[in-house]
Every structure is written in C-alpha cells, then in structure tokens.
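I am writing to request your help with a piece of structural work I have in hand. I am sending you one protein, given as its amino acid sequence and as whole-number tokens for its backbone shapes. Kindly check, if you would, that the fold set down in the tokens agrees with what the sequence suggests. You will find the record immediately after this paragraph:
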Amino acid sequence: MPVEVIMPKVDMDMASGKIMCWHVAVGDTVEKGDPLFDIETDKAAMEVEAPASGILQHAAPEGSEIPIGKAIAWLYAEGEEVGEQPDSFASVDDNKMPEQQPKAATEPAFGDTNLPPEPAPERETALAGDAGEGVRATPAARRLARDGGVTLAELRGTGPRGRVQASDVRQYLKDLDTVSARATFLPETGALNVTYSKRGEGTPIVMIHGFANDATSWAPLEPSLRHRPLIRIELPGHGKSPRLRIRDFAMLVREVRQTFDALQLDQAHLLGHSLGAALCIALADTREPRLASLNLIAPAGLGPQINGEALNGICKATRAESLGPWLRHLVADEDRITDGYVRLAMQARGDANLRAAQFAMADVLFPDGVQAFDLRAALQRIETPTRILWGKADAIIPWEHALQAPGRVALHLFDRIGHMPQLEAAEEVGKILRSHV
C-alpha cells in the first residue's frame, strides 16, 4: 500500500499550509528523512522530510493550500502499481505539477570546479519553527548545508537582507573542500558520525563535543582553528551517530577509540569539551604517541560532582519551554541563550530515540548526579602538552576540579564564564588554542 504524505501541523493555530516548493519531482525515489517539500504558514516556513522511502506520485502542485491532515502526495514502493490520481487533484493542470529535475545523486560533488549557475529566484525560509529569527536561507541552501555538514551560522549570505543562497553554500564548500560522511568502520555496532573540514594544513584537530550536544557546538570556535584540518566526532546517541546503548564509560571510550583509530592519523591535536574532554583524556592515555597536543574545555572525570539535575532536565525536555531554563545553566550570561537558540536546540532534539539514548547514557555515566568515572590518574600519566580551559562560573562541573591537574598542565581560568567558554568567550579561547596548535 502506498504511504500518504499529509500536511503536518507545525503550530497550534495552523489550519492549513501552502506548498512553497517540492525538492523532488514526481517519479523520483526518496529515502525516509530526505527533504521532500517546503510549506508556509501564517507564522513560519519550514522544510518537511519524507515520512517513508518510496517513489513520489500524485503530488499536489506548488502554491496549493492544503488543510492540516489531508494527503498532498503518495509514496509508492518500487514495482507497486500506481493508482489513479485522487479526485482532489484531478482538476489540476499537469503543467503545474513538480517538474522533473536531476536527482540528488546526480548533482555535482562538493568541490567540483564546474558548478552550475545559481537557479533563480530562490524562495526564502526561516528556520523550522522559527517566526523569522535565526539565519535567513533558501530551502536549497539549507539542503546543501545539511548534506555538507555545514552550520548556516558560519556562512555570509549574499542574498537580500543577508539571506544565504545555495551559491553561498557551494562556494563555501568549494573553498573549504569540506566533505561530510558517515564512517564505514565499526560494523558490529554502527559507525559514529564523523565530519571533516580540510582547508587547513598540517596536523588535524580532532574535536569531541560534550554530553547532550553535537558537532555543531564547535561553530563559534572554528573560525580560529581553520588553519588546521578539522575532524569532528559525534558521540553515540548524539547528532547523526547511532543511538547505541552505552553500558559503562569503558564502552564509550572503546567506541570513540575505534573511531579515532579508523581515521589512521599519524598525528593529531585533540580538543574536547566536558564529556568529550574526558574522552580525550582517555584517548591520550592509550594513544599518546599519536598526539601533538591535548586541549580540554571544562573536562569531566576530574572529580565526582556534577549538576545531574540540569543534565536530566535537558534529557527529559520535550518542548522548548521546558528545555530553555536548563540550557541557561550552561552559561554565566543567560542572555546568550535566546528563545531562538532554544528553539533550534529543541529542533535538534526532536527525535525521541535520541533523547532516550542520552537519558540512558546519563543514568550510566552520572548515576545519582555523580560522575561514575575518574580520570585523575590518567591525566597524571599523560606527558603530551596539555591545556585546560574553564569558566569560573561553571554551574555544571566545578572549575576547582582543574586543580587536580599536574603542574605541567597549563590552566586558563575565565571569570564570569560558565560551562561553555567556547560559546561565551569564543574569541579569547580561539586565540589560546590557535597559539597552542
């Protein structure tokens, strides 16, 4: 049986939505989760993903106003007989149906020097669930950015009012020679997601984010680090990595270590934040000959205390209204966590399986609000040049844990900065790291 694609409800007052554009043509094959079409409501514009895999048939024309819950297209399985066009679309002029266009698989690879000219005009869309705040970008630009592992906030838009165009993303990817790909190792557990930026030269920087975050959290810091190739590893149950059930800290270390080994790097600088920094310490303890430096931002694993209530609150939040107050524990200046920032964070946490995986991980790693792993002895053993950067207003992990480090470790302590110095003091942190790596 074909799968109905229905008009979704994206806000409480929404009675219908207008189809702004289709990202695929009738007859195209799509995979579940692929960008399918853009809709526009009175309050927002957003991109809708395919609810299942299949071949698109009987798509309502662009510009159609469709009531909530009504079918706007059908997805047929390969070889399944396509039924007659529904009566509700029977009077539609065939010329208004989505035109056949090249499939995504035939588009030029990022970095191709013969990129096609920018199609015009492009429709503008705000971030999903956003009424205009955030980054302005066309649907095509968002699709290219997502496929290329690029955060739109990194780009300078050349369109009206700073809108990011598809050509801006293509040029950015061409300049940086950026590729984003899932690794093909760890077949027994599923591959951790790894993204690369290769514009820089010399020894790469391997970056591991903190708990309940993902690779995009490095965006404020990356402008200071682009002189080196950047490699970002996403933890299990985070970002695009598999929703693995972690039994203990040793298993988590093993997953990350195998990912690191599969990169086959002769030398690397390690950079981690919070839980990611703890994993960097564990990596350095067993892979020290391959490390050029170790850089730790508010590392876990140097003492038992941690704000378990805040971590559980973040994991349990299912709406922006409940997520926001917990996110503000991460910073000293709460104004940095705007409503738009919270909505974007909640959008990234919309997957219930992701939230469940992180909640289970928190229960294993931080039972009863205590860090269940201790890396103080490991840090004592490491002789690789090491720096610790910490905000003295950290409300998640006490900055005093930094005092457990041996004397050869450089300490950089920031007044009036919370758990995320890479966000609150990005420029200063960037200067320190750039001089170190």
Notes: The chain has a mean pLDDT of 81.
